[in-house]
């Protein structure tokens, strides 16, 4: 064949490659060394990104403009800058322009510094990564030289050594591994801990000597860079014109680590930012929380209030001007130009001035404060010990940092089942072979014991050393199991950290291998049969009898176990050298040498021979067409035996096998694969080695058998099965073993009916019965089937398959069709039932989440019966409930009907569902109709009235559609939780996506906003942290609005001719929100706990608080505004009357007002603060101290500066004035009296559930526990989510609030009247009376006579 | 924006990959520290606002505030104050004519005398104020219209006043000293007080014109350019404010310590009032001996050199005589406010007491659910 040798290529290279029209769709990679001498422009790879990564956003020059540009995307920033700039217009300016810029500049620079710091960190890590070393082939030196990563370019040859990290996406061209494999660990990409095999490109498979880059002459055509980790397509064109397809198995991805392979050489295909790892890295997600959406509405309202106030002032000013007419008073200063402004013009100017003066109404620091508080909240969630999982040494990750408060407002939870509710630790439970059920009772008992031990150990953790019972029935194996589980359990539960660490390290080495999964007690009956069968086979082999004489049921049994053992992608490794694949090094070479000698005469060339020997690849790849076909033509009766029954390899890396001690470790991609392999091992059918082209199995009596692996058709979710094509060593037949979900499995088997005897139909139907039984027990079922292919059939199929594989366009579909063609007419061998145990605390979590008023829907791909049973097990469905099952029967079944499973009472839509407690079960096919536009409303109506909903057999797309439907139609907050790739779409659609960082890779975690180690942590995350985050933030936002709405200056406008004058020094005015009153609210916003964590968890009903947005209702905003209005009145008018008609000057009067406004605001915060830690005290003290320090320094600093206030020595004088202190005492008291009184009344008359919870906190623990247990019982029996005592006879808080406000207003009026009477009765000073009258009857006092 | 403390490196995984190669024994646990702060278990005081808990606070506030209020009210009432309006709106007012015929430019000062009677003697030092009503000294543009550097004696500011003084910055090509609208509108009535004893003779009451301004203003903020010697030279090349009759260095020719920018009447005026009705300290009548009252009861005559126009903007001018106490001038408001707030607190405390007795009992019993 043509590929036998490569002509050595010099510097000259064919450049006349025609420009293809699809150039833009593909990437062409040439070897760089060919162009070393040429100028850069001639290198065809020059346009591709180099390997230097730059994740920074800015450069030194671009930082300022770019960062500012980004910040101005936030509207608020633009607004504040606009206002600050307005100050530069002399006609309208209110403050010193430079000073007015200060807050904006401060806010912008804080953000900019933070951005800069982050960018610098990124830059440093980039530098570090860019300066890592790797070996790149240099043509000049004719060897590999050390280069920095950033110098690597597309087309470079690089040499990789063991444990090195890949610098770029590299096409594997050579490997020191005799199988031309390279093992990589992809944990950093997808979190999967098992090793993956990668393969040298086929054309370079056969090089005996080391790969010489100088001899490379191929051109690689491949896809444009994309972010799909699991796809790579392309081909390599050799100079000879031969094309070889490239697969993802040939590509080593950046960021992976080379393992178990001494050396590998590859050519860089994608570099730097075009690598798949970098393309997948798309940073954190930004979502806007519900609270923030509400808040933005109110910011908008603030703007409107602001405009109204400005308009009011402007009109007022116009009128004030107008009343003087032409007689311009001395105090009405002309404009700087000396021109006389008309009232209208000055009103317009004043409008703009007022916008500046009142800018504090729009809280400039709100956005920054919210972000600071959220960062702190995320920090605390991270630090929570209860959310830390010792077993995996992982804690909760917040990936989306700005939706913490959404956690407190969830209404619907959409959960995946497998891996989320269950452990995804698959345990083999029972099986049926050839229509006979083997119940594995002992195994069931063993599993039950684990469960008991779990609970037992929770009770008595102290003496974990004592052994519990040793069941007489259990075999010696299960006794050992007890011991083992005891030890691991103690690690998990109570053990020291070091022990747990050790356990977790151990478990890391082999994926999914707790003893519970590994040690399976075989069913004695089945074990006997296996033994009998294999001894018979041994006998037959010994006597060279054909295997077909075996009784069919026994043959089925042995086939069944062989299928379990080999129909998977499990990799075998030895535990003492973790990650070291057990290599058949010596044997292998001996064998191949032997074979070479044997067949040396018959084969045309060495290369074909070798390729026939290891002509198979793992997974989807396949041998090249010609070699496989040649192989099929070969005669090989002698080879078969010799190959498979060759002497047992003398050593496997010098280690003796000891199966009983379980020294083999299986690394599986999914836990059910491992479970099946362990199950087979219990029957002495153990997988001992897997190579890309062969699987070695050890069978009882028969010893080691090597199955030549011709093909692996990997599992995919549409086919729901996987197949292997092997050459059976005993019968030498080409056999297809398939395992798959029963719906697909049995239908395939069913289609076989035409050919098969009646007895076989019986097997199928019996098996089907058992399958139903298994599903009813909540087991995951898999069907095992096989099929024997004749050589012709195989050759025919192979032809098509190879075509499919080499196609670039539409390869997936072609491969799918090809797989389907193979997986028909299968013979059913049996079925397995695998138990997927519930995670710890799932039923409790679900129960308490439900008590918290959360609707829980489970969306699973499992079959209905399994799902329903798991649902019962985790208390999602209740036996007392009516179950509505929606199943569509026909594909043209448009309107679905509802039929109740037991009672006919709820057979129509009109029945009031709420009377009954309903659970809804719907399957995927029906779901497809239910999600149809015309039916979705009906579906939702039904689903809403049900307590729980279970969707089974749903596809990932359907999952996300359900979430989207509920979210959009019901306008509720949704949370989706899942662990697998099939949950990603659902996680992305929901308001909050939670990923379980479990065992099925990292896709779900990558897509999620929060990643949890276990499902049960959801309880604390939502009920405690969600509640806290929500109530803290809601209260802080409300407080912010209140604080900014205390607009004292507005009232002053009535006394300064609406001239926009401010009695508060501009420094105080500008820094008030930014400095003086900023810290306490941040501390409260971060640390305040309305109810303790214990109570929140024990009383999930409190969560309803957040669901109904009780802490942040629109009326609360308005109430706060009214309160702020009232407080500003008090804060303004008490000093006003206290200083009325005195010789006080403008700023000596304004400074006390500032001070007492600060006190009022701080005490207000104090009323709203629920927990006072030393930090709260400190922050308030700090704020006060800061204000006085700043004021004193400021007032002492410069006698002539700071026009116009010129506050020299003002504060110092005030501090000597008793009036100042008297004012500072009375004003906050008078201002906060209504709120304090209201809070007290509310606490007594109509306490919110949260307040009751706080009262419970205060009770001694003993009484509290009694009350809680009582309430729990009550809540459990009552339908309402609130226990009765929480919903006392309470009047609507709104009404009560209004009443209190009315009372307050009345009190105010009374005070005023009192003042008036007092003043007027004592006739000493009629002037005072005039002032009171002025206040009471109007603002213009000229016509008033008292 | 702030929340993106995100590191690309972690995602890329180079670090973790490199560090994991080492021995597995030294893996650092990610377990969070069990500290009270990190676990949010800081010791805290958790007040619960209910009628029962809040009740004492109300009573305590009431009990403290009412006595304070009474004290304030009494001490305010002990202050003697006398006020007389001399604007001359009313035709019967002696100053009616002066008020009517006023113009800024008239050269002959208009003098009017207002007789009044003090019913009670003023015992301690008496402060004499002039009061203006409806005069918006707090207008935004008015407040700004001054140059503090100039007033501080800065030579360059004297010759080149701040832009803020516009349009009272220059006059006839010369810089105005003191510039600005505040200075321009300086109150320039002269008030003199006579005691008319039983035989009808007028005794001039000595009025002290020093010590009426803040010490810091007089000695720190306000300074004459080039010291206090020969102000005429110092103010050479400047122009007097438009409305003034005489230049700034003739404000008080008798006393160089009270002349020019450091004239105390001027300093007092420059401290702009907070509210449109205000008073400013004009003179102090010092107590002569402990036996006789400062102002015995009887007839008095106030003689006014009527210069300052207020009728154009409907203003009023008053003369006020007042004694002061530790809390300043006469103002019963604060006392009343304390009494009122105290009473309201007391009243609300009673309301809460009732509420507490009616509704709040169950908080003390553990059987809430029942």
Fold and architecture overview:
The complex is a heterodimer of chains A (1346) and B (370). Chain A is an alpha+beta fold and 1346 residues long. Chain A contains 45 helices and 36 strands. Chain A has a ten-stranded mixed sheet, with helices on both faces. In chain A, strand 18 and strand 19 (436-438) form a beta hairpin. In chain A, helix 24 runs parallel beside helix 31 (1017-1045) and helix 44 (1293-1321) packs antiparallel against helix 45. The longest helix of chain A has 35 residues, at 290-324. Chain A starts with 25 loop residues before the first strand and ends in a 9-residue tail after the last helix. In chain B, helix 3 (51-77) runs antiparallel to helix 12 (333-359). The chains are: A alpha+beta (1346), B alpha+beta (370). The interface between A and B is large, with 154 and 132 residues.
Order of strands across the main sheet of chain B = 1-10-3-8
In angstroms, what is the radius of gyration of chain B?
33 Å
Q: What fraction strand of chain A?
A: 5-15%
Low-confidence stretches of chain B: 1-26, 363-370
End-to-end distance of chain A: 120 Å
Strand tally of chain A is: 36
Q: What is the rounded Rg of chain A?
A: 39 Å
The fraction of residues in strands of chain B falls at 15-25%
Give the overall shape of chain B: extended
Overall mean pLDDT score of chain B? Answer: 84
The main sheet of chain A orders its strands as 16-36-35-34-17-29-33-32-30-31
How many helices of chain A? The count is: 45
* Oligomerization category of the chains in this entry: heterodimer
Mean pLDDT over the residues of chain A: 74
């Amino acid at each position: 064949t043509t590929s036998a040798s490569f002509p050595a290529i010099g510097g000259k290279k064919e450049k006349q490659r025609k420009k293809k029209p699809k150039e833009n769709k593909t990437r062409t990679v040439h070897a760089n060394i060919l162009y070393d001498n040429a100028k850069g422009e001639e290198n065809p790879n020059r346009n591709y990104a180099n390997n230097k990564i730059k994740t920074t956003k800015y450069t030194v020059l671009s930082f300022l403009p770019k960062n500012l540009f980004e910040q101005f995307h936030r509207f608020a920033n633009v607004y504040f800058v606009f206002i600050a700039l307005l100050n530069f217009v002399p006609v309208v300016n209110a403050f010193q322009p430079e000073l007015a810029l200060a807050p904006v500049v401060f806010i912008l620079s804080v953000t900019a510094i933070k951005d800069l710091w982050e960018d610098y960190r990124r830059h440093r890590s980039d530098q570090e990564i860019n300066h890592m070393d790797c070996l790149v082939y240099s043509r000049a030196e004719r060897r590999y030289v050390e280069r920095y990563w950033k110098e690597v370019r597309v087309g470079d040859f690089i040499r990789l050594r063991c444990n090195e990290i890949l610098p770029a996406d590299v096409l594997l061209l050579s490997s020191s591994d005799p199988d031309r494999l390279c093992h990589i660990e992809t944990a950093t990409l997808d979190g999967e801990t098992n090793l993956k095999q990668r393969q040298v490109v086929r054309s370079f498979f056969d090089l005996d000597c080391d790969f010489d880059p100088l001899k490379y002459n191929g051109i690689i055509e491949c896809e444009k860079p994309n972010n799909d980790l699991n796809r790579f397509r392309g081909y390599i064109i050799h100079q000879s014109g031969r094309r070889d397809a490239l697969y993802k198995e040939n590509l080593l991805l950046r960021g992976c680590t080379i393992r178990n392979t001494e050396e590998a050489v590859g050519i860089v295909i994608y570099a730097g930012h075009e690598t798949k790892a970098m393309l997948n890295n798309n940073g954190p997600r930004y979502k806007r929380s519900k609270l923030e959406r509400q808040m933005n509405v109110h910011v908008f309202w603030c703007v409107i209030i602001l405009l109204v106030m400005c308009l009011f002032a402007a009109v007022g000013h116009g009128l004030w001007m107008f009343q003087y007419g032409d007689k311009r008073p001395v105090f009405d200063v002309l404009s700087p130009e000396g021109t006389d402004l008309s009232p209208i013009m000055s009103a317009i100017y004043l409008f703009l001035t007022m916008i500046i003066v009142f800018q504090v109404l729009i809280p400039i620091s709100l956005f920054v404060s919210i972000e600071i508080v959220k960062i702190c909240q995320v920090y605390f969630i991270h630090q929570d010990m209860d959310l830390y999982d010792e077993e995996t040494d992982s804690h909760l990750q917040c990936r989306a940092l700005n939706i913490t408060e959404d956690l407190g407002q969830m209404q619907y939870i959409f959960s995946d089942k497998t891996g989320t509710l269950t452990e995804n630790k698959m345990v083999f439970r029972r099986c049926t072979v050839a229509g006979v059920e083997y119940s594995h009772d002992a195994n069931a008992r063993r599993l039950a014991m684990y469960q008991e031990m779990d609970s037992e150990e929770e009770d008595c953790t102290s003496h974990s050393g004592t052994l519990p019972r040793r069941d007489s029935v259990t075999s010696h194996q299960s006794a050992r199991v007890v011991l083992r589980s005891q030890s691991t359990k103690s690690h998990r539960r109570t053990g020291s950290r070091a022990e747990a660490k050790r356990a977790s390290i151990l478990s890391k080495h082999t994926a999914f291998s707790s003893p519970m999964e590994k040690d399976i007690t075989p069913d004695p009956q089945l074990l006997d049969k296996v033994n009998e069968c294999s001894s018979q086979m041994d006998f037959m082999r010994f006597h060279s009898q054909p295997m077909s004489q075996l009784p069919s049921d026994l043959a089925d049994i042995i086939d069944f176990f062989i299928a379990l053992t080999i129909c998977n992608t499990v990799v075998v490794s030895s535990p003492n050298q973790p990650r070291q694949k057990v290599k058949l090094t010596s044997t292998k070479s001996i064998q191949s040498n032997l074979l070479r000698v044997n067949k040396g005469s018959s084969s045309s060339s060495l290369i074909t021979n070798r390729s026939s020997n290891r002509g198979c690849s793992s997974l989807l790849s396949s041998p090249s067409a010609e070699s496989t076909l040649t192989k099929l033509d070969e005669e090989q009766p002698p080879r078969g035996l010799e190959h498979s029954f060759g002497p047992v390899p003398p050593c496997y890396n010098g280690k003796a096998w000891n199966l009983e001690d379980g020294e083999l470790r299986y690394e599986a991609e999914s836990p059910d694969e491992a479970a099946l392999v362990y199950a087979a091992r219990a029957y002495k059918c153990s997988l001992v080695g897997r190579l890309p082209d062969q699987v070695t199995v050890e069978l009882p009596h028969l010893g080691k058998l090597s199955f030549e692996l011709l093909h692996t058709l990997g599992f995919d979710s549409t086919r729901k099965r996987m197949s292997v094509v092997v050459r059976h060593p005993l019968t030498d037949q080409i056999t297809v073993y398939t395992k798959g979900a029963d719906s697909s499995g049995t239908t395939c088997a069913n289609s076989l009916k035409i050919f098969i005897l009646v007895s076989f139909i019986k097997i199928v139907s019996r098996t089907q019965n058992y399958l139903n039984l298994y599903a009813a027990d909540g087991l995951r079922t898999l069907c095992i089937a096989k099929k024997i292919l004749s050589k012709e059939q195989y050759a025919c199929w192979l032809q098509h398959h190879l075509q499919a594989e080499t196609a670039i366009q539409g390869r997936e579909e072609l491969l799918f069709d090809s797989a389907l063609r193979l997986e028909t007419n299968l013979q059913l061998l049996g079925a397995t039932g695998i138990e997927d145990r519930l995670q710890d605390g799932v039923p409790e979590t679900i129960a308490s989440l439900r008590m918290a008023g959360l609707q829980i829907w489970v969306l699973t791909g499992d079959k209905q019966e399994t799902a329903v049973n798991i649902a019962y097990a985790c208390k999602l469905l209740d036996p007392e409930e009516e179950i509505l099952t929606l199943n569509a029967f026909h594909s043209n079944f448009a309107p679905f009907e509802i039929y109740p499973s037991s009672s006919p009472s709820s057979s129509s839509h009109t029945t009031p569902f709420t009377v009954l407690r309903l659970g809804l079960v719907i399957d995927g096919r029906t779901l497809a109709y239910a999600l149809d536009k015309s039916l979705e409303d009906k579906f939702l109506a039904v689903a809403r009235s049900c307590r729980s909903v279970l969707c089974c057999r749903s596809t990932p797309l359907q999952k996300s559609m359900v979430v989207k439907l509920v979210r959009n139609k019901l306008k509720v907050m949704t949370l989706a939780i899942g662990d697998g790739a099939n949950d990603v779409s659902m996680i992305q659609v929901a308001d909050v996506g939670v990923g379980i960082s479990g065992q099925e890779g990292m896709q779900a975690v990558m897509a999620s906003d929060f990643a949890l180690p276990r499902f049960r942590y959801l309880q604390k995350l939502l009920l405690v942290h969600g509640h806290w985050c929500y109530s803290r933030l809601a209260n802080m936002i409300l407080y912010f609005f209140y604080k900014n709405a205390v607009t004292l200056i507005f009232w002053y406008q009535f006394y300064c001719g609406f001239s926009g004058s401010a009695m508060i020094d501009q420094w105080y005015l500008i820094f008030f929100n930014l400095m003086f009153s900023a810290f306490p609210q941040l501390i409260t916003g971060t640390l305040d706990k309305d109810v303790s964590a214990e109570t929140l968890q024990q009383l999930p009903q409190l969560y309803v608080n957040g669901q109904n947005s009780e802490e942040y209702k629109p009326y609360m905003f308005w109430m706060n505004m009214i309160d702020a209005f009232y407080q500003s009145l008090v804060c303004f008018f008490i000093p006003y009357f206290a200083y009325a008609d005195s010789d006080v000057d403008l700023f000596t009067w304004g400074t006390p007002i500032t001070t007492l406004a600060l006190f009022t605001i701080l005490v207000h915060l104090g009323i709203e603060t629920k927990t006072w830690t030393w930090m709260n005290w400190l922050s308030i003290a700090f704020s006060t101290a800061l204000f006085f320090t700043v004021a004193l320094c400021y007032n002492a600093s410069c006698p002539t500066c700071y026009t116009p206030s010129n506050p020299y020595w003002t504060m110092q004088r005030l501090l000597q004035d008793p009036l100042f202190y008297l004012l500072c005492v009375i004003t906050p008291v008078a201002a906060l009296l209504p709120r304090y009184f209201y809070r007290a009344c509310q606490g007594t008359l109509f306490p919110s559930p949260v307040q009751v919870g706080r009262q419970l906190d205060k009770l001694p623990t003993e009484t509290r526990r009694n009350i809680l247990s009582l309430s729990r019982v009550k809540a459990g029996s009552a339908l309402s989510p609130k226990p009765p005592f929480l919903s006392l006879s309470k009047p609507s808080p709104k009404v009560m609030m209004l009443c209190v406000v009315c009372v307050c207003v009345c009190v105010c009026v009374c005070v005023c009247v009192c003042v008036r009477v007092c003043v007027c009765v004592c006739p000493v000073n009629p002037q005072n009376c005039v002032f009171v009258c002025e206040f009471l009857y109007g603002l213009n006092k000229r016509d008033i006579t008292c | 924006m702030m929340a993106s403390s995100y590191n690309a490196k972690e995602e890329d995984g180079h670090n973790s990959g490199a560090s994991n190669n080492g021995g597995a024994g030294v893996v650092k646990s990610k377990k969070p520290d069990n500290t009270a702060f990190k676990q949010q278990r800081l010791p805290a005081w958790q007040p619960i606002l209910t009628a029962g808990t809040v009740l004492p606070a109300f009573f305590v506030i009431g009990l403290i505030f009412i006595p304070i209020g009474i004290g304030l009210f009494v001490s305010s009432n002990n202050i003697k104050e006398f006020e007389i309006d001399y604007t001359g709106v009313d035709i019967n007012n002696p100053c009616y004519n002066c008020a009517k015929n006023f113009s800024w430019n008239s050269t002959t000062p208009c003098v009017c005398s207002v007789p009044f009677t003090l019913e009670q003697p003023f015992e301690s030092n008496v402060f004499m104020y002039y009061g203006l009503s409806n005069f918006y000294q707090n207008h935004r543009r008015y407040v700004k219209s001054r140059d503090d550097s100039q007033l501080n004696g800065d030579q360059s500011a004297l010759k080149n006043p701040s832009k803020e003084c516009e349009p009272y910055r220059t006059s006839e090509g010369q810089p105005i000293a003191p510039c600005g609208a505040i200075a321009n509108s300086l109150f320039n009535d002269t008030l003199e007080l006579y005691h008319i004893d039983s035989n009808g003779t007028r005794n001039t009451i000595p009025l002290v014109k020093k010590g009426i301004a803040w010490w810091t203003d007089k000695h720190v903020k306000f300074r004459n350019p080039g010291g206090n010697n020969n102000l005429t030279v110092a103010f050479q090349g400047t122009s007097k404010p438009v409305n003034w009759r005489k230049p700034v260095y003739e404000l008080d020719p008798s006393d160089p310590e009270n002349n020019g920018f450091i004239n105390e009447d001027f300093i007092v005026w420059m401290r702009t009032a907070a509210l449109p009705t205000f008073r400013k300290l004009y003179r102090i009548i010092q107590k002569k001996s402990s036996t006789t009252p400062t102002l015995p009861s009887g007839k008095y005559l106030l003689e006014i050199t009527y210069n300052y126009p207020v009728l154009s903007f409907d203003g009023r001018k008053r003369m006020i005589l007042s004694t002061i106490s530790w809390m300043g001038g006469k103002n019963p408001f604060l006392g009343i406010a304390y009494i009122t707030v105290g009473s309201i607190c007391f009243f609300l405390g009673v309301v809460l007491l009732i509420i507490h007795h009616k509704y709040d009992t169950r908080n003390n019993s553990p059987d809430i659910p029942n």
